[in-house]
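Objective 1b: paired records.
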Amino acid sequence: MNIKFDFSESRFVVTGATSGIGKKIATDLMDSGATVLAIGRRSERLNELKEIYKDKIVPAALDVNNFEALKSAIENFASERKINGSVHCAGINKFTPLRAFNWKDAEQIIRTSLYSGIELIRIISSKKITAEKGSHVLLASVAGIKGETGFTAYSAAKSAVIGAVKSIALELAIKDLRVNAITPGWIPTELTDSIDARYPGHIDTIKLEHPLGIGSVEDVSNLAMFLLSDEAKWITGSNIVIDGGYSIK
């Protein structure tokens, strides 16, 4: 059964919108009638989406760690109509083994996944920007609940996202705004491809650890669409794991 969502007249912000899960969520939202502020660092890819989606996309080429630029883009987007929600998919991952720990890399990883996600919701949830009954989703990872050897900073950042969502959800419930986390398992994207390229054979091991096999960006986007919709109006502060059984082994 194909579930169709209708987001006509709705407006969402999606970070990491130029590739992988973020791109899929952004395009699915636009295909469902929404207008999307698509945030990413690669302007050429945003322009490619603009060619396809025309007036359904507002591209913003910026680094989510530049909070001033992020705020400006969101305020400009909200000037036409208030925002119904967001999905924070921007993230980076680097190998950070304990004996060769790089604090600069760790800070960048944590800022991108956690701090910018918090700032994104902080900006949008202001009264002059948010629509009523909005919904926000932050992307975590199974690394945040199970751990991955050599990826201390990434695991810590994603675990912190899960914790932050619970507290933010409590604060925003009084405004009737929902906040949830999605925790995917291994999803083939440019990010995971780069890891596989650096560590040959790693992906073969990962596949064996997912009882239902490797997932897809479509799987994660379907869940995000549900959480953004009114069908999920009684769900907040939750971390929903979508990993083909990886975390239960």
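Objective 1b, second protein:
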Amino acid sequence: MILVTGGTGLVGIHLLMRLCKLPSQHIIAMYRSLDKLEKASVLFLENNTLAEWKLIEWVEGDITEIPSLECVFDAYKITQVYHCAAYVTFQRSAFDTLKKVNIEGTANMVNFSVDYKVEKFCYVSSIATLNSETNQTVFNETSRWNSEQNNSGYAISKFGGEMEVWRGSEEGLSVIIVHPGVIVGEVFRKGSSSDIFKNLKKGMPFFTNGGTGYVSAFDVAKAITELMDSDIKNDNFILVSENLNHRKVTQTITDIYGKKGPFFEAPKFLVLLVARAEYVLDNVFGYCPKIALDMVDSLFVVSKYSSKKIEKALDFKFEAIIPVLKKVAKNVIN
């Protein structure tokens, strides 16, 4: 029996799309609100059948509430856990919520999985936790956390979640941790990579010379199901299809919208000025910044990630990311 947390999120819903196509399994998926569940169902049914949707047993629950999790683990004999639930934001004012959900919530999931003798546990983390060598040209799974860097609250919380999962492995839980790059998937709600497309619908004349790794939501779902069905355990894997510079991504999306693409390279001092102004607005009014202060450096750094480990371990092949960017951009128009 499989339990999926964050079933209505970007990774969660794409994971459920895949799980329902695999050999018959009892799938339990957690959700927090009916509104999110309804939106997730629309996306699911655009890609899957109603019969497959009915294979999922939806359970209302909250990973930060012990009684809520107790009900789930008491009611079902869970053998595998896909922990996809996470809070994603770069607002500094939301740091307490990030810690509550991404660290405490993950600790709760690990504790219940250990106590109820779950066979295998998958944690969806982020490439944001791989940052140890400032002069490293390509990051891999040996890259480690560097507390000396100017880490975002989100990165800190995801690293804290990882520590809870590794702690679970020391207590006998078989675990898998994955580090996806920027996840690109069909847009059905606010947050995560969906904001990239919504913010570019009016065009974007500016660009910065940084870059990072990208991966499709379907590839994340495919990779974690294959890892969970393999004999691999107590290991971590980077999930990045391609490393792209920010200008290339922006140009690809604005071309689909028929809008003016990036032509002016924004100087760092100007971006920093905007980020500081938005930081003040965040702290005073709770304004959600478009340019998070913690993320300014990353806009000017080319960070590259290697997925050779999973490609070798599973003979895994990623889909090209540019066609995925174009497809999602077109869906936003529709």
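The two ends are 37 Å apart (CA to CA). The mean pLDDT is 90.
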